[in-house]
Amino acid sequence: MSSARIALIGDYNASLTAHITIAPALELAARALDVDVKPVWIHTSKLNTMEAVRSLLAYQGIWCVPGPPYANMEGAISAISLARTESLPFLGTCAGFQHALIEYFKNVIGATNVAHAEVNPESTHPLISKLSCSLVDVYAPIRLIPGSLSQRFYGADRVLEGYRCNYGLNPEFAQLLQNRTDIQIEGTDDAGEIRIIRLQNHPFFLATLFQPQRSSLKGFVHPLIREFLSASLAAYVMK
User: Fold this and answer.
1) Cβ contacts of 108-117, under 8 Å, gap ≥ 24
2) Adjacency order of strands within the sheet including 3-9
3) Domain coverage including residue 83
4) Contacts for 120-125 with beta carbons within 8 Å, 24 or more apart?
5) Which CATH number fits the domain that encloses residue 53?
6) For 165, left (φ over 0), alpha (ψ -120 to 50), or beta?
7) Domain count, the chain
8) Total H helices, total E strands in the chain
9) Count of CA atoms in the C-beta half-sphere (13 A) of 194
10) CA 237, 31, 151: angle at the middle one, nearest 5?
């Protein structure tokens, strides 16, 4: 049976629903694909050297999980950068979405002074800012962009997803992602605020502000997690 090791980048906390639902969500996807999956938690404090970050290449996929502030924010960003530059399948959820955007703005767009308002509350113009309305324990609709891969994965134009989040992309920065050829906005809320992004020309690099792993609470195979695992298995075959 095919098997994939998935690095879970984050600081595990057994009291967080966002954490304890990840392994079951991956297992549900693995059963649907008739494969084996081995999730491995990696505390961000361990990613304190380039050697430690490069060791993630031994995994078939990287999932940057919720739960900021991370013990080592730069370690999480370095892991995301590795996934982006080394074509390693990547999924970012909640904080993973936020930090994927930070990594992209820093290392691709070149905006090196971007900040996260939760980590740097003194920042006057943070890339990741407090949401106008809290999304803690909220289910809200996502409008999937016509023709996007996410729309194809879901097989729908509109879906309902669960959040536990107070921070998202500052709308003032959203226009910088428009009409780029290397990144695709794949889903928004009803007000047009970005909720799903995907990198083009990458085997699989997708990030969501919501937490798709919560689908495991209902025994539901989430399409985005299934496709992430499928891409990770393809990476395993390539290796």
Assistant:
1) 108/182, 109/176, 116/68, 116/69, 116/73, 116/167, 117/167
2) 36-42, 3-9, 61-64, 90-93, 205-208, 194-199, 183-188, 128-144, 158-169
3) 3-238
4) 125/170, 125/172
5) 3.40.50.880
6) beta
7) 1
8) 8, 9
9) 26
10) 80
pLDDT tens, per residue, the chain with 239 residues: 688 999 999 999 999 999 999 999 999 999 999 999 999 999 999 999 999 999 999 999 999 999 868 999 999 999 999 999 999 999 999 999 999 999 999 999 999 889 999 999 998 889 999 999 999 999 999 999 999 999 999 999 999 999 999 999 999 999 999 889 999 999 999 999 999 999 999 999 999 999 999 999 999 999 999 999 999 999 755 55
Cα separation values, 186 from 121, 147, 159, 206, Å: 29, 9, 12, 9
